[in-house]
Amino acid sequence: MTLTRYDLMVIGAGAAGSSAANEAAAHGMRVGLIERDKLGGTYLNYGCDPTKALLHIASIHHQAQQAAMYGIQIPSADIDWPGIQRYVQGVIEQVRGGTPIQAREKLRQRGIEVIEGEAEFISEHEMGIGGRLYEAARIIITAGSHTITPPIRGLDHTGFLTNVDVMKLPQLPHSLAIIGGGPLGVEFAQMFRRFDVEVTLLESKPTLLEHEDSELVKLLEQVLRQEGVQIETGVTLQQAELTPQGKRLRFQDASRRQRELDVTDILLATGREPNLAPLHLEAADVRSDNNRILVDATLRTSVPHIWAAGDVIGGMRLTHVASAQGKAAARNALSHHPQNFNLQVVPWVIFTDPPWHMWEAQRSSYAPVASPIAWGVPCLRRTHAPSSMDVPQDSSSS
Ligand SMILES: Cc1cc2nc3c(=O)[nH]c(=O)nc-3n(C[C@H](O)[C@H](O)[C@H](O)COP(=O)(O)OP(=O)(O)OC[C@H]3O[C@@H](n4cnc5c(N)ncnc54)[C@H](O)[C@@H]3O)c2cc1C
């Protein structure tokens, strides 16, 4: 077997991997960037960018349907799903900076070689990819995450959709059960409803968005219900089965009644877990726990020359976090004095309409800043004290 050598290899070309590879290449390293699917990973191909484009288009359709209320007559606002998909692919291509071939060429010019295939560790410095052997002085694992399949009897047999399938649906479903009322579930619920799909959102916890401000959650629930989303919280999903028309979910509702829901499709928004299995981490002695790679404060794994960043290490699964971690991991991998990765302030948004802006301050000198809840304000914000800003401020100045 021939052996190819790199200064640094990065496993996974998502937000974390792309920024790690770019940072290392900018420091003159010869970088191998391994990707088994598409450059850009989840955020570009199946996550943030396409879902936000779809939400925007769904909102245009919704506004067109509401236009008469404002004195604007729009006789028909028909959904052309293939046209929408073409638009979304155009957005992806624009963000990627061209076709996959053009993007690869741009990376090559920066000193980053893209290697297509799935990486598995052979030893601490070696990786096998599609029957070829590669060796690197340093390695950064940025393999991302995938949707968790909940243990519902029959679900394997009925089949289901994930965020990956949504991007290539041949047509919109007539009706959809969305399992999971977290940020992805509520965004998908509003989006599909605004594309005229009958949507039922099912959540096992007593409330949607269980980690968020309960008052704001109530307001958002109200908006979703007004738009026609059926919401069932506190459910126990028991069984999925095929019917002549589609799929049936059997569940116990919050009042402990046995219920059935017939839909054409089921979409999982049930949380995500790191892509660890194919990596064979044990071959390199990289330690993991609870299905995530263990790293210290500098993002170093249990093996001194192997680093990890992004969804694969758990924590806040957000693109900007992954991207910042990727850059930090690359810097540390090249440095004799690794620095701690510091999550000082992390903003995040739930892109419903109205959207939901939040940030988390993990340093005591930052105080929560919030705005009063008012119906009709353009966005929902976490409210601790009356103020008008949703940006972090140093508490010493307030
Ligand atoms: C539907 C959806 C919407 C989202 N919306 C937002 C949002 O609005 N804002 C936000 O901040 N975050 C959002 N996220 C989260 C965000 O997409 C992730 O946090 C981010 O993509 C994580 O980046 P990453 O580089 O860690 O992983 P990924 O982007 O998942 O990239 C990992 C890459 O590694 C590749 N890979 C895995 N294993 C191997 C292997 N063994 N060999 C080779 N390649 C491998 C994968 O194919 C993948 O391309 C969303 C996620 C989803 C699913």
UniProtKB/TrEMBL annotation:
Gene3D superfamilies: FAD/NAD(P)-binding domain (3.50.50.60)
Pfam families linked: Pyr_redox_2 (PF07992)
Segments forming domain FAD/NAD(P)-binding: 6-326
InterPro entries, alphabetized: FAD/NAD-bd_sf, FAD/NAD-binding_dom
Superkingdom of the source species: Bacteria
Protein name, UniProt field: FAD/NAD(P)-binding domain-containing protein
